[in-house]
Amino acid sequence: MAHAAPADLAATPARTDARKPHLSLLRIVEMNLGFLGLQFSFGLQQGNMVPIYSWLGADEASLPILQLAGPMTGLLIQPLVGAMSDRTDSRFGRRTPYFLIGAILCSLGLLLMPHSSSLLMAASLLWLLDAGNNTTMEPYRAYVSDRLNADQHEIGFLSQSAFTGLAQCMAFLSPSILVYWFGVDRNAVDAHNIPTITHISFLIGAVLSICTILWSVLRVPELPTTPDERERIAASEKTAGAALREIVQAIVEMPRAMRQMAWMSLFQWYGFSIYWSYAALSIGRSAFGTADKSSALFRDAVLTTQQLGAFYNLIGFAAAFAMVPLARRFGASRMHMVALMLCALSLLMLPGVGAGSAHAPAIFTTLAMPELGSHLALMIPALGLGLGWASIMGNPYVILARAIPPERTGVYMGIFNMMIVVPMLINGLTFGWIYRHVLNADPRHAISFAALLLFCAGLTMIRVRDIPEDNRRAA
């Protein structure tokens, strides 16, 4: 049962601040450009970590636990960084120091990852990479909430969603672009079976990660803190213990709308964790008829899965902007419910996609997606996946930004990330057993199970109430 928010939160007035100028679309795009580099990194992980682990000899059932770095670092870092950034008042700003530290760590992880010579090395570098990503992610969410008034939250957070779609489209598609536009041999591999196209893609990601963050913070700097904010920050404890106490207190006083989204997050992120782990393996079996990780057919299946990821993220990029007026008219919670249902239906269709035609239409060759074009039936699941992903990266944050008090933006964004990483952590610890003993070690069954979880996530959104932008209180 959801708990009512404390009276002081319920009486909080609408978040309108004369210091926050109404930003143009161009400025909002520039302030979110850093998300391009950040999400390019996440896209590289989603599209390449399972193949890298597979090329290094990982067992299929061990894949979820090998990817625990993401949820563990998110669980440990994001709430702590959120609470600390709320208490930071440096010459560079409140959030900017965390952007820059995270971007440097992320770039180092991306540079080194393709040179992994063992599962242990790859898993260790994933911890470094995810530590950098998570150090940047939460302050970036808080930065948008800090910088924009409530009437621009939809465009602010859905712009982040759009950049997520664009960046991950680019990340998923970069190996295919290298093959079809620049003639890099798809079968050229190093001594550990990691392809040359993977090495180059991660190098591009390392450059983007640092450059786009710098562009955002230089072009749209944080607003200076007010005297009241500086006084509050100066009076607050700066120790890790104080930050932890703040996190615990914030959880106890969590706004009702945020509590209501907990079940949605559990089903949603457990399901997507399954998809990221088993999509390439499922498509390898259904569309290419292979389970041999060292075969050329499996490399083709990896490219096809990456192209599918690029296509649904491209749809997500366009859908994020289209959702802005729809979310205002129908409510972010209802939009998210519909999007999750369509995403579930798409995942349910994916394991049934078999071998397609022998020749891809010319348009797909131009887009560096010939494998996807040869399996046209994959286009239909991509539509629902794109709509679902656009909503996941935007609409919950619209609901959240209106529910939380401004002085706790950082810590609550970090706590909301716990609702993302805890399901991933549970997935890593439990899904290996489910995969072996319930799903008969078949990746196609794993994708169907993920579809069921996304459907459950959509159902839970029936209980979530939207908070009007002119009446920001715990509903």
UniProtKB/TrEMBL annotation:
Signal peptide: none annotated. SUPFAM superfamilies: MFS general substrate transporter (SSF103473). It is a multi-pass membrane protein. Keywords: Membrane, Transmembrane, Transmembrane helix, Transport. Its main location: membrane. The keyword Cell wall biogenesis/degradation does not apply. It comes from the Bacteria. The chain crosses the membrane at residues 25-44, 64-84, 96-113, 194-218, 266-288, 308-327, 339-364, 376-399, 411-434, 446-464. It is found in: Membrane. The keyword tRNA processing does not apply. InterPro entries: MFS, MFS_trans_sf. PANTHER family: SOLUTE CARRIER FAMILY 45 MEMBER 3 ISOFORM X1, SUGAR TRANSPORTER. This is MFS transporter. It comes from Novosphingobium humi.
